[in-house]
Amino acid sequence: MKPLWQVVRDLEFAHKKGRLTPSFIDHYADVNGERISALYALCAKNFLDVEHEIGRNDHIAREREHSIDQAAVNRALEEEARVLHQELRTAREDGRPYYLRKPTKNAQFIKKAGS
After folding, report:
1. CA angle at residue 21 from 57 to 50, to 5 degrees?
2. Exposed, middle or buried: residue 37 (CB in 10 Å: 0-12, 13-18, 19+)?
3. I need a labelling partner for 37 at 20 to 30 A (CA). Which of 12, 49, 60, 76 fits?
4. Which pLDDT score is estimated for 68?
């Protein structure tokens, strides 16, 4: 991996020559061990327009292989929120704050007999 200033310099040089295309970015990432998405981010940050290539968008497909499954993350967060709301609802029905009802090793409060 090259230092950041060298990568930016190479991208600017390719942009001035009119060779900053998705194929160039893909090749540059493979040769120098950089991430494709990081190169696109550097282009955007430094106002370098990537030229359009007809029929060339496999860089998106490659990045999807390494990306996070957002649907799975959302399902896990919704399940966690559902469990937390259920615990809070139960604590509210008991009449005490949730942190007093939390089962701990050295609990100071005994649960009510009706619960």
Report:
1. 95
2. middle
3. 76
4. 73
**Average pLDDT in the 24-47 region?**
93
| One domain, residues 43 and 84 | no
Instruction: Report yes or no on 23 lying in a domain.
Output: yes
**Which pLDDT tens digit goes with each residue over 1-12?**
889 999 999 999
Q: Are residues 51 and 28 in the same domain?
A: yes
Residues 6+ apart with CB under 8 A from 62: 36
- The answer to whether residue 78 is domain-embedded is yes
57 and 13 housed in the same domain: yes
Q: 10: which residues sit within 8 A by CB, 6+ positions away? A: 2, 28
Higher pLDDT, 48 or 53: 48
With a pLDDT cut of 90, the percent of the chain lying above it is 43
| Distance in angstroms (rounded) separating the CA atoms of residues 26 and 72 | 29
Tell me the residue range of the domain where 91 lies. Answer: 70-101
Q: pTM for this one?
A: 0.48
Amino acid at 114: G
